[in-house]
Amino acid sequence: AEMESELRRAIADEQLVLYYQAQTYLGKITGAEVLLRWIHPEKGLVPPGKFIPLAEQCGLIIPLGNWVLETACRQLAAWADHPELSKVTLSVNVSAHQFSMIDFVANVERVLRETGAEGKLLKFELTESAVLIDVDSTADKMMQLKDLGINFSIDDFGTGYSSLFHLKHLPVDQLKIDRSFVRDINEDPDDLAIVQAIIAMAHNLGISVIAEGVETEAQKRCLEKRQCRHFQGFLFSQPLPLDQFENCDIDIF
Ligand code: G
Ligand code: G
Ligand code: MN
Ligand code: NA
After folding, report:
1. What residues does the EAL domain cover (predicted)?
2. Helices (runs of H) and strands (runs of E) counted in the chain
3. Is beta strand 89-93 parallel, antiparallel or unpaired with respect to 151-157?
4. Mean pLDDT of 43-65
5. Beta pairing partners, 80
6. Tens digits of per-residue pLDDT, 67-117?
7. Nearest residue by C-alpha to atom 23 in ligand 1
8. Cα–Cα distance for residue pair 116/245, rounded to 1 Å
9. Model pTM?
10. Does residue 35 contact residue 23 with C-beta atoms inside 8 Å?
11. How far is the CA of 37 from the centre of ligand 1 (A)?
């Protein structure tokens, strides 16, 4: 309960910041996943694992999620005239609760309008469970958001109870291979088998696939050999504060 009121204050008092973690294609940056950080006045940097679950429980995830979306969109708009950063996409994690709100689409539309951000530079990362809560209304919402140019990636793919049948009927653009499968890809043949199956399925469905949690050259080589070309992980970049992301030394695609 104490943390809840602190978190409430954090939103009001601008103690939240976004970090940006590069997503790459063929060695260049195509975009970044935005990751929420809480700079607590006494505790310092609080990782999202410590407060996102709480925010989900008490409903604060809605104002929190709105803040993330607005901040990401303001950033896209700020980059619009930049020679290179204007092409960078931002991936926003959308929680199941947030996505299930009846006014979610209207809210996104409003944020795009108010910030002037281009929808096609925005990607929503949804989890399998978020997508499957109510498949009919999910499909409906996704279509409306796609009309705004927004793309969709299924986060932590393979760890939820996804129905491949349902996936087929949803306008998904990308599968994001969970880092738990990437970690031991060179040691555990079962992980490799799962990763290969996800890559093959994505390509057969005509959608892209990104591996997260790539930390070593050996993991990257193994994934490349299996035709995975989109990466995210510490090998390329840590999640960085804005100024460091803007000045990081990887070329932009
Ligand atoms: O950045 P880090 O690895 O500490 O994130 C831990 C978890 O918190 C991840 O599962 C990530 O998806 C989640 N997370 C980070 N930022 C956000 C956010 O803005 N919204 C939501 N819903 N989850 C986030
Ligand atoms: O669940 P989600 O994909 O949103 O989680 C993103 C989280 O993964 C972030 O908190 C980020 O800090 C973490 N992360 C990003 N790259 C790596 C990596 O290469 N290795 C590990 N262990 N974690 C990573
Ligand atoms: Mn994510
Ligand atoms: Na993930």
Report:
1. 1-253
2. 12, 10
3. unpaired
4. 93
5. none
6. 999 999 999 999 999 999 999 999 999 999 999 999 999 999 999 999 999
7. 93
8. 22
9. 0.96
10. no
11. 9
Give domain 2-246's CATH superfamily.
EAL domain (3.20.20.450)
Look at the block and give the residue holding tokens 């950033």.
75
CA of 153 to the centre of ligand 3 (A): 9
What ipTM was reported for this prediction? 0.95
pLDDT band at 2 (very low <50, low <70, confident <90, very high): confident
Is 135:169 a contact under the CB 8 Å cutoff?
yes
Spatial contact of 7 and 1, defined as CB atoms under 8 Å apart: no
Name the residue of 19, 179, 184 whose CB sits within 8 Å of the most ligand 2 atoms, as the mutation to test its pocket: 179
Please choose, from the candidates 253, 179, 250, 174, the residue with its C-alpha nearest in 3D space to the C-alpha of residue 211: 179
178 lines ligand 2 (CB under 6 A): no
**Would you say residue 165 has pLDDT above 80?**
no
Note whether 122 and 79 are within 8 A (CB).
no
Place of tokens 């399998």: 128
Residue-averaged pLDDT of the chain: 94
Residue with tokens 């604060």: 60
Cβ density class 210-220: b for 16+ within 10 Å, e for less: bbbbbeeeebb
Amino acid at 83: P
Q: How far apart are CA 175 and CA 85, in angstroms?
A: 24
Assess contact for 89 and 123: CB atoms under 8 A: yes
